[in-house]
Amino acid sequence: RRMLRLVESVLSISRYTDAVDAPRLAGSAKRRQLQMREFDSVFTAIVLCCDYVKGQELAARQTSSRDYGVLLQTIFETARRYKIINPEKMGDTYAKLVYLLQDAAAPWAEEHLEFSPVAPVRTVHARLEELGAADMLSDPLIATATQTIAPEPGKARYTIEREIKAKERAIETLAARYRGAACEPDELRRCIYSIGDNHAYLYQARDPVDRVISLLLSHFGGEGGAGEGGAGEGGAGGGSLAIELGREGARLTHSHARQHAFVLQTLTLWREIANDMFRLWHLAEQDLLDPSNPYEQRDTGQGLQRVQEAPRTRAALLELLRATQLKASGGWVGSSLVHLGDSNVPNALLFIDKYSQVEHILNPLLATLDALPKLHADDQKIGAWIDATFGGVRALTRAILRDFFRFAFDGSGGDNFFDAGSCIDGRLTSAWNWCSQLPEKPFYIVFTLAGFTSFDGSLGGS
């Protein structure tokens, strides 16, 4: 924790990316000179905070940064690992850290520094193998010990307490069962808690996608089938999900059945990405910090960006896409084009940033829908307004979902069809476009009454 607070504090006051990624320095020798000065400043600040005397020696050039290479690797690895298991943290510093390490790991920089500040991220599996306790991962109790205990609607308090006690017993049993001469129970507990962090992430990032898929199927039927509103094209009462190019901002033309399939397939892909996000994040860092994979500074239309190939991340994403396409009945709808390492998604960091946002789109939507019955019941005036304006809670829920499933997946949001449309990246662009237009929707006031403030969650990076 001390190392983590240290690196966050140092990076929060550093202007690394603002300085070295200034357009006037692109491709110039002055940029490398500035980068070396920035490396020196950051490394010296960290060593100084860890040991004042040694930091003074480093600042006075009596020692070299390479003398503290292991310390710097450990501190930076700790921060990277923390970010991966806590995606909502380090919003203003993580991108800055990655870009600094990306530059410091480059062959020319490593030659001058005489060390690399990049070390592989430590994993639970690797640590348990070091401790000789890797068998714990296949123990039947590990599922109970790492489960996420969620306060689901209608779940009794005694049920939650029973699950908590069962989880605590499982943790203690595993810690006692696999302890050894070089393996203390506390170390095993930390490993178990780390696995639990992954399950907690899935609860907040993957499970909302599952819920939205369930809402799509329950309100608008199976793929091309009938929902609760009736049969055929989405049922009666304005239940169709059909969209038409040029109408209400749509850039695609889909019948109800085709739009239903398009939304379902998109949500399924998002679900698979969220389910595999930790692996994708590891691969993204490997692509970003690979010295043999240099980046190019390019004006992408959204400012000067670091455009870099991401072969590992792309291969993993294509694998998930193929698996999703195999599940799609009736064939894949839309384009399979993946933007990664180009002007749309310049590098793997931007890919992670984009797909980390899915939960920040869906969770406010779900929170509002969950709040509707209570809003209707607790305030007579609000309840009467909902009934008069929308026809009741069920009709309002369906209206919100119909608008979301139509216009958050209509190919809009980009400057041209290549930037948005039906490509893999464009689907998420359209969803963000819907978020930006929410204040113009007739049901926006319901979101505010339910406590909605904004869609957020950016990784940051300035």
From TrEMBL:
Protein's UniProt name: Non-canonical E2 ubiquitin-conjugating enzyme C-terminal domain-containing protein
Annotated organism of origin: Emiliania huxleyi
Record lineage: Eukaryota, Haptista, Haptophyta, Prymnesiophyceae, Isochrysidales
UniProt-listed Pfam families: DUF2009
Domain of life (superkingdom): Eukaryota
Span of domain Non-canonical E2 ubiquitin-conjugating enzyme C-terminal: 1-457
